[in-house]
Design brief:
2 copies of one chain form a homodimer. Chain A has 116 residues and is mainly beta. Chain A contains no helices and 11 strands. β9 of chain A pairs antiparallel with β1 of chain B.
Chain lengths: 116, 116
C-alpha cells in the first residue's frame, strides 16, 4: 500500500500537547499489522510548537525533513534541523518548537510500543 | 538521542537482496528499546536497485524522500516519488529500482515486527 504525505490533505491540530498555535497533521496510515499506533507527517508553522509531554513504554521517533527547531530531549534543549532523527526513550519527556519566523518545520512522527 | 542521517558516513552495500549495483546505507540507530531491528537512511544511485525479496511476520516501511523509482508492491510495479510511503505487509514481497539516469533515490527504511 502506498500513500503520499506531500499531496494528502492535512488536519489542523490546535495546541498539540498544550503547545502554541495550530499544527497540521497527515495520518499517513490508519491501520497497521503491528502495534504501531500512528505514523504522521506533521508541519509546524512558524510560531507553533508541540508542548512538553511524557510518553509511556514506547519509543517515538521525530524525523526532521525541513526547517529548524529546538527539541527538548532528555531534559536538554537542543537545536534540530533537516536530517535529524530524535529517538525519545520509554517514559521520556519531550517538546519541539519551530524557531523560524518564516519557515515551517516539517517532520515524520511515529511510535513503536516496547511490547512489540 | 539525536542522529543526523544527512551528515553521517554511509556504508556501501553491494547487490542488496541480489539487486543491481551498490547502494549506500546509514544505520541511523543501532539500538532500540523495542523489537525494531533497524532504521536506515538509504541512497540508491542511478542504475541501482533493491532486489525482490520476501519478508516474514513484520511490516516494513519505505519513505521516499527524493528521486523516482519503480516499486514492486503487492505484485504490481508502481511508480514512486518524493512523499510516497510504501507499507509492505507481513510476508509481503517487494523490490525497488531507481529509474532515473542521473538522480539518486533517497529514502528511509524501517521495520516493525508483528510479535504482539
Amino acid at each position: 500500500m502506498i500513500r503520499n504525505f506531500l499531496t494528502a490533505t492535512p488536519t489542523d491540530v490546535p495546541n498539540c500537547h498544550d503547545g502554541e498555535g495550530t499544527i497540521q497533521v497527515v495520518e499517513i496510515f490508519d491501520q497497521f499489522a503491528t502495534a504501531m499506533p500512528y505514523f504522521h507527517y506533521t508541519v509546524l508553522p512558524p510560531g507553533t510548537s508541540v508542548g512538553l509531554h511524557q510518553h509511556g513504554n514506547d519509543e517515538e521517533f521525530y524525523v526532521i525533513l525541513e526547517g529548524n527547531g529546538i527539541m527538548t530531549d532528555e531534559g536538554q534543549d537542543k537545536p534540530v534541523t533537516a536530517g535529524d532523527v530524535i529517538k525519545n526513550p520509554p517514559y521520556g519527556e519531550h517538546a519541539l518548537v519551530n524557531i523560524s519566523a518564516t519557515e515551517p518545520l516539517k517532520m515524520l512522527v511515529f511510535e513503536v510500543p516496547c511490547t512489540v
